[in-house]
Amino acid sequence: MRHLKLGFTSQTTVLGELMQNARRAKASVVVFDYDEAAGRLTVTDDACGIADLQVLLTVAESGWDAETVAHEHPFGLGFLSAAYAAERLTVESRGRRLCFASADLLAFRPLDVRAADTTCGTRLVLEALQIPFLEAALRHRARAFLIEVHLCCPHTKKALQR
Q1: Which whole-number Å values give the CA distances from 22 to 119, 127, 137, in the listed order?
Q2: How many other C-beta atoms are found inside a 10 Å radius of the C-beta of residue 107?
Q3: Which domains does the chain have, with CATH numbers?
Q4: Given this model, what pLDDT does residue 14 score?
Q5: Quick check: 132 and 11 in contact, CB under 8 A?
Q6: What is the pLDDT of residues 86-135, one digit of tens each?
Q7: Which of 33, 91, 129, 132 could form a disulfide with 86 if both were Cys (CB 3.0 to 4.6 A apart)?
Q8: Distance CA 2, CA 61 (A)
Q9: Structure-model confidence comparison of residues 152 and 57, the more confident one
Q10: 14 to each of 70, 91, 101, 113, 117, how far by Cα in Å?
């Protein structure tokens, strides 16, 4: 587990992985809300949500439907890029919430799933995250996706790709 981070080639790999997950879940829009001062990135989408949060924590088990597996051959590693990029993560989807320190995940400590208000789409919060040139990195990666990608920073909201 500790060495898997070597498979994510840059600090910005997580951005593409999260966009890809939103697209595969049939999202029409994904919003990246970045608070640079707090080092917090909140990613939300309007997709179907995650039925089983445990799948996020299982290596090589993508949890995607049969059609996605047949056409895209997902590896089941994308979410781990978030654990390597941030010190703390929160995932909310389909009325469930998983909040943990990346170190706890990588040390295989027990993690608790709790009830949450989020019933539509998925919300992911990455804390203690520093991504230099976030807007340029998102703009570059968004070109490959056929969904709307937005960046919200304090006092601004930009559509990066339509």
Answers
A1: 16, 19, 17
A2: 10
A3: 2-161 (3.30.565.10)
A4: 86
A5: yes
A6: 999 999 999 999 999 999 988 889 999 999 987 789 999 999 987 888 88
A7: 129
A8: 18
A9: 152
A10: 23, 15, 17, 23, 25
Instruction: Pick left, alpha or beta for residue 91 (phi over 0 → left; psi -120 to 50 → alpha; otherwise beta).
Output: beta
Q: In angstroms, rounded to a whole number, what is the distance separating the alpha carbons of residues 91 and 76?
A: 16
Per the CB < 8 A criterion, the answer to whether 58 and 76 are in contact is yes
Residue with tokens 């500790």: 2
Contact 30, 44 (CB under 8 A): yes
How far does CA 36 lie from the centroid of its chain? Answer: 17
pTM of this prediction? Answer: 0.82
CB atoms inside a 10 Å sphere around CB 115: 8
pLDDT(39) > 80: yes
Which residue is listed with tokens 């597996």? 69
Looking at residue 124, what is its pLDDT? 95
CA distance 103 to 46: 29
- Max CA-CA distance within the chain? 42
As beta bridge partners, residue 157 has 152
Among residues 28, 31, 74, 27, the alpha carbon closest in space to that of 55 is found at 74
Q: What is the CA radius of gyration of the chain?
A: 15
Strands (E), 16-105: 29-35, 40-45, 88-93, 96-101
